[in-house]
Amino acid sequence: MIRAGMLKLGAGILGELLAADPGFRGTRLDCGNGHQAEFVSYRDKTFDTVLGPVTLRRAWYHCAACGHGLAPRDAELGVAGVSLSPGLTAMNDKAAAAGPFAGAAAMLQDLAGVHLSVKRVERAAEASGAAHAAQVRERAALVAGRKLVPLPPSPLPDMLYMLTDGTGVPMTARETAGRDGKGEDGRARTREVKLAVFFTQDELDDDGCPARDRASSTCIASFETASVFADLIKAEGIRRGADHVRQLTFIGDGAAWIWNLAAATFPEATQIVDLYHAREHLHSLARSLEFMLGDRYQEWLAARAEDLDYGDIDGIEAAVREFPLEGLKKEETGRELGYFLNNAPRMRYRWFRSRGLFVGSGVVEAGCKTIVGQRLKQAGMHWTTSGADSIIALRCREASATWEAICNTPRTQTRTA
Ligand SMILES: [Zn+2]
């Protein structure tokens, strides 16, 4: 009761404060499209705030040329065209990014005493996410075009990692219409979102293993093609100091698009195939030879795993070539072996480890699970691309928030002359 009373009191105070400026900015003002809009009257606008609904009486102008009205006071307060205050929008973003929209509405009601319908929670969160995604793309275009030049991170980290992976998001039937997929009827049920995680590393832990710098991760995601995604990666890499660090490393699961992306964005980066994916492929390779190996299967696999740990792909190849294979088996084994031959320079694990480098992409796989899976792949969920893109953008922003808070202050960026 006391809290409800305090909120009501707060909303009253806020209303009084807002009323102090009725928003009159002269009888005429620029409409935003180069015309003069004329003052018409004072009109009420009600919007929701963290203290509850507040009604604002402010000057309202009309542009005859455009045929639309505007209130300069709304723009100043950040409520032009929307019905949630910036404070409540931030609160709603957090709740809707964390869980399903209905749960977010209930949480706002229970924890903050703010009542919003489920539909409003969804609309507001998607609008915020879309705005954030657009802002990231705009910044990426400026950075990639060298029109916005981020200063080097300070202190400068020693190594920067870029990890990329893709994961499917369940889509509504309309979104996937006409796309081929893995479903039983051949129809796609998901669309792939590409995710990249950036983090830095300065030292090894007490056991001599690479240790990720605390609060150094930032994430970007996109449903767009690999070439559009490449521009985002390029910009984020530059922003994270790729031009300045001593060691730049790109880790992926071995998919061809990832290496094309790496070559197109940062050809100077060291490329590493995630060791755990390589081990899975080693199991497939061994299975394709199981009929020849018989009782020696486990022993053979263990020896090849050791070869792999050393980065001795020649050793793996020689061990496979000992078997005279023909026909389908030859093809199958050749395909499995090809994964290793094509990626051999990216599998020099012993060397990479001796340089203190990470050799696993666990961070980005965890990112796919936490940023995408836990929010977007719950039972019964089906998304539109724009809805999923917006919510993923909000979750990427949350995941990057600590680094952004430290580094993305105005003084760390400068515009070129
Ligand atoms: Zn106008």
Summarize this entry quickly.
Among the domains are: 2-83, no CATH class; 277-347, no CATH class. Helix content is 49%, strand content 20%.
Helix tally? 16
**Each distinct ligand:** zinc ion
Q: What is the number of strand segments?
A: 12
The level of helicity is: 40-55%
Global shape: elongated
**Unreliable spans:** none
Q: Which percent band covers the strand fraction?
A: 15-25%
What is the typical, i.e. mean, pLDDT?
90
Structure commentary:
This protein has 417 residues and is an alpha+beta fold. Among the domains are: 2-83, no CATH class; 277-347, no CATH class. It is 49% helix and 20% strand. The chain has helices at residues 2-19, 72-77, 86-98, 101-112, 118-144, 173-176, 226-239, 256-265, 275-288, 290-293, 297-310, 313-321, 327-343, 349-354, 362-376, 385-407; strands spanning 28-30, 36-49, 52-63, 68-70, 148-150, 159-170, 190-204, 210-212, 218-222, 247-252, 270-273, 413-415. Strands 6, 7, 8, 9, 10 and 11 form a 6-stranded mixed sheet that branches. It has a 4-stranded antiparallel sheet with strand order 1-2-3-4. Strands 5-12 form a two-stranded antiparallel sheet. A hairpin with a 5-residue loop joins strand 7 and strand 8 (210-212). The longest helix has 27 residues, at 118-144. It is elongated. The model has no long low-confidence stretch (mean pLDDT 90). The structure holds zinc ion. Residues 31, 33, 35, 63, 65-66 line the site of zinc ion.
